[in-house]
Amino acid sequence: MLRCYNYDIVASEIPDEITLALNITGCPIHCEGCHSQWLWDAEAGEPLTDDTLLAIIDQYGFGITCVAFMGGDNDPAEIARLAEVVKAQWPEMRLGWYSGRDRLPDSFPATRFNYIKLGPYIARLGGLDKPTTNQRLYRIGPDGTMTHLPMYKQH
Ligand code: SF4
Q1: Model confidence over 119-153: pLDDT tens digits?
Q2: Cα(42) to centroid of ligand 1, in Å?
Q3: Ligand 1: does its nearest atom lie under 6 Å from the Cβ of 36?
């Protein structure tokens, strides 16, 4: 079972969405320079059951437009299953997954999500807000098409 360290409402992680971002523990990617190393511990946080997840979402209801799982590379199938649980209860809710992988796992049901971020954090390239970043945020079309959404703003 996946565990959730904490969660927050954020406006910057996914463009044009008010996102409930759930920080999932047990990250197996271990990027050098990771700013969230407390998320490496698979025993940290509280179990993210279906009921727990839906209760968190219920706190915000229509005040959020998107639920994003930040991490969960230790069990992508469970992330995909939880996405289905959210969709069954909140059909209009957009769904996101922030993965540290370079590519999607084989047979991953990407169309359950509206947004997927791929790529580990590489300090010299910077995060999603840097034009040099290796990380990519994609909008997922109903047919599985992945459209890159550049996150950085040029000044
Ligand atoms: S994927 Fe994210 S949480 Fe995991 S090691 Fe990389 S930066 Fe840290």
Answers
A1: 999 999 999 999 999 999 999 999 999 999 998 76
A2: 13
A3: yes
**CB 100 less than 6 A from any atom of ligand 1:** yes
Asked whether the beta carbons of 110 and 104 are under 8 A apart, the reply is yes
Average pLDDT, the chain: 96
Q: pTM of the entire structure? A: 0.97
Our mutation pick for probing the ligand 1 site, out of 30, 124, 125, counting the most ligand atoms within 8 A of Cβ, is 30
The verdict on domain 3-148 having CATH code 3.20.20.70 is: yes
Give the count of alpha carbons within 13 A of 149, CB side only: 18
104 lines ligand 1 (CB under 6 A): no
Residue whose CB lies within 8 A of the most ligand 1 atoms, among 3, 29, 40, 74, for a mutation test:
29
Q: What are the residue boundaries of the structural domains of the chain, listed by start?
A: 3-148
Q: Which alpha helices (H) appear in the chain, and where do they start and end? A: 50-60, 76-89
Contacts of 14 (CB under 8 A, 6+ apart): 66, 68, 94, 96, 115, 137
